[in-house]
Amino acid sequence: MKQLVNKEVSKTVIGRTKETELLLIALLQGGHVLIESVPGTGKTLLAKTFAGVAGGKFKRIQFTPDVLPSDVTGLHYFNPETHKFELKKGPVMTNFLLADEINRATPRTQSSLLEVMEERQVTIDGTTVQVDFPFMVIATQNPVESQQGTFPLPFAQLDRFMFKLPADYPSFSEETDIINQWINQSEKQEPESILSIDTLEDAVRKVREVLVHKEMADYIVELIRATREHASVEWGASPRAGVALVKAAQGSAFLEGRHHVVPEDVKKMLRYVLAHRLQLTAEASLTKSTDQVLDEIIQSVDTPVELRL
Q1: Average pLDDT in the 215-231 region?
Q2: 245 contacts 224 by C-beta, under 8 angstroms
Q3: For residue 138, with 0-12 CB atoms within 10 Å meaning exposed, 13-18 middle and 19 or more buried, which class applies?
Q4: Which residue segments constitute the domains of the chain, with CATH numbers given?
Q5: CA dihedral 264, 269, 274, 275 (to 10 degrees)
Q6: Is the whole-model pTM more than 0.85?
């Protein structure tokens, strides 16, 4: 599955195999993804292409400061023909929602996604509506420090994203391929939708059957608790982060063709799951990055050596 999805996405998006794999893991485990980078690095293109390859309904919201919560979730409106109030569902009622430049919306509008991201339902003027399977939010944002007119995502919102992906600049060869792809538009291949609902449901069932042995579960809990005890961390990871790390490790093992989680799965996923969930102290943030702190945490916790599978 990983190879097929990467093959289709790479027809349009060059050099994003790692990001595509993480998007696929999030999809299989019911998670959501936040992609952060400076403008022009293909965040929106990656999200749109992945959603197209995965199939299902796709909708996009271009967030700006004047977008209201009702523009996201929907509202009841008075129909003069029927003389009744009717429900108009918002763009959130879809399979794949691209929340483009989410940090340009006000905190009030950002919070309109909290319920649906956690509970897969939307409450509109007292009416609760369930979203269909699959449901996934792919949000993009520009770095807050470098952009005017942005609003930092609240901690409660960040904690609902399974992964935060930094979309780095492409390598020299990848950037050359991007230029050549634009020059040779006539030779460009369009990606195809290759995942059906039945395929996804089967994969979701299999990934959740991936074994997480007791030693691995204890290892994950120790890592999570170590974030709360580290001297450089003001706010550590929540229990929800621990569950997300288990799901991410299961997804990593599944895509590698294994039926059990190993420590490498946990370490591979750790930064993407925890980096956006930690708040460093004011003093530590002057001399350290979150990745450096996570490195110290990994080194401080003993890695399971032998698993009785």
Answers
A1: 96
A2: yes
A3: buried
A4: 2-177 (3.40.50.300), 207-300 (1.10.8.80)
A5: 110
A6: yes
Q: Would you tell me how many other CB atoms lie within 10 Å of the CB of residue 87?
A: 12
Residue 46: name the closest of 162, 166, 132 by CA.
Answer: 166
Cβ-proximal residues to 74 (8 Å cutoff; 6+ apart), any chain: 87, 88, 89, 90, 92, 93, 122, 124, 129
Please state, in angstroms and rounded to a whole number, the distance separating the CA atoms of residues 52 and 163.
20
What the block records as the tokens of 190 is: 């369009």
Q: What is the amino acid identity at position 51?
A: A
pLDDT in tens, 38-93: 888 888 899 889 999 998 889 999 999 999 999 999 998 888 888 888 889 999 99
R_g (Cα) of the chain, nearest Å? 20
Composition of the chain by helix, strand, coil, percent to 5: 50, 15, 35
Cite the beta strand spans of the chain per DSSP E.
33-36, 58-62, 74-79, 84-89, 96-100, 121-124, 127-130, 136-141, 163-166, 233-235, 279-280
Q: What angle do CA 17, 189, 251 make, to 5 degrees?
A: 25
How many CB atoms sit inside 10 A of residue 179's CB? 10
C-alpha distances (whole Å) from 18 to each of 6, 10, 82, 195, 252 are: 9, 11, 52, 19, 11
Backbone angles phi, psi at 29, to 5 degrees: -105, 15
Question: How far, in whole angstroms, is CA 109 from its chain's centroid?
Answer: 19
The per-residue DSSP string of 42-95 comes to: SHHHHHHHHHHHH-S-EEEEE--TT--HHHHHEEEEEETTTTEEEEEE-TTSSS
Of 91 and 182, which is predicted with more confidence? 91
